[in-house]
Write a structure and sequence with these properties.
4-stranded antiparallel β-sheet; 5-stranded antiparallel β-sheet; 9 strands
Length: about 200
């Protein structure tokens, strides 16, 4: 399993860890056990480049300690190299999760994300996050102060001058598309153009 740490741009109050695994003929099951408590997302399931032209079924097995034996595995992907070699999903799962390659020889690659709240961050990471938020707040405070100065040049609120950059450019007439015309008509048009010049 590969894990790498990145920061999430969409959720500033948390951290994201990427995870991935490979299911194949030798290793048909894999259990995801998170490092910390948080959300677990399954993002992509795809066939490897050495996958044979066969149906590969990936399923999620019910937890081993579950008392209800009637719960069956749930098939989440049915992949075939020439038909559907990859699927993208955004499924949130409750860990621990066991994936199984029920049919096919693979290789099938699964990847996803673990999302943690900022309460799980170390104090150094929290400090960096607070500094970024303070810088953003300062930038937002600076912007509104500059705007009133620009609007109130002469004290006339009704007369607002627009700079050339703000005024739209007036579009001229588009030239007619060139059609196949006779030689006589072309000469006539050329004479008229010369007379206008």
């Amino acid at each position: 399993m590969n894990r790498s740490r990145t920061s999430s741009s969409t959720d500033k109050a948390g951290t994201v860890t990427l995870w991935g695994c490979e299911l194949n003929q030798e290793k048909r099951t894999w259990t995801f056990k998170p490092q910390k408590e948080g959300k677990v997302l399954l993002c992509t399931i795809c066939l490897g480049e050495k996958a044979k032209e066969e149906m590969n079924l990936v399923e999620i097995l019910p937890p081993a300690g579950q008392e209800d034996k009637r719960t069956k595995p749930i098939t989440i992907a049915s992949l075939q190299a020439s038909v559907l070699p990859m699927i993208m999903m955004g499924v949130e799962l409750s860990p621990p999760v066991t994936f199984q390659l029920r049919a096919g020889s693979g290789p099938v690659f699964l990847s996803g994300q673990e999302c943690y709240d900022s309460a799980d961050l170390s104090w150094e990471e929290e400090e960096e996050q607070e500094e970024e938020e303070e810088e953003e707040a300062e930038e937002e405070e600076d912007e509104p102060q500059q705007q009133p100065e620009e609007e109130d040049d002469d004290g006339d609120e009704g007369d607002v001058e627009k700079s050339p950059e703000e005024t739209p450019v007036k579009q001229g007439k588009r030239p007619m598309p060139q059609k196949q015309t006779s030689v006589a008509k072309r000469k006539k048009v050329e004479k008229e153009e010369e007379a206008v010049r």
